[in-house]
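Supplementary Methods, section 5.1.

A reviewer requested that the exact input to the structure prediction be made available. We therefore reproduce it here, unchanged from the version used in the analyses.
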Amino acid sequence: MNSQDFLTLNLVGAGAFVVWYLLSRGGEKTPTRLDMKAKDSAPPLIEPEQPTSAKEVGPVAATRAAVHPDLQGVRPKNLNVIFSYNSHTWDAYEVLGVPAGASIKTVTEAYQTQIRRCDKGSIEFFETAYNAILNKK
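The structure derived from this sequence is encoded token-by-token as follows.
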């Protein structure tokens, strides 16, 4: 097979691919229309709570937040520790470079690493962040 035959074969193959691609696209498709007046067919994620007593009728019942059944009675846990230093608020975990809610061992290692790396003026800042985490736990 010489180079001219090879070129012809490649051109025929490429042409066949282009024709196949253009024919397989199917043509112009119409966009989907959104019917804003249609009723929602999906079930609600959280059922609104019914008033439990006669006192909770009206606006009081409407102001109660709906809570997922799995989360009833569970208080959300805040993992971040916010502290104030030089009239600014900081997240102690972020200052030490560890994820929020990290163990004391991880926090201590990060604190010691930061103390070794920083200049003498920043030691108090890292100390305040470390003590804020220790006081929370």
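The mean pLDDT is 81. These observations are discussed further in the main text.
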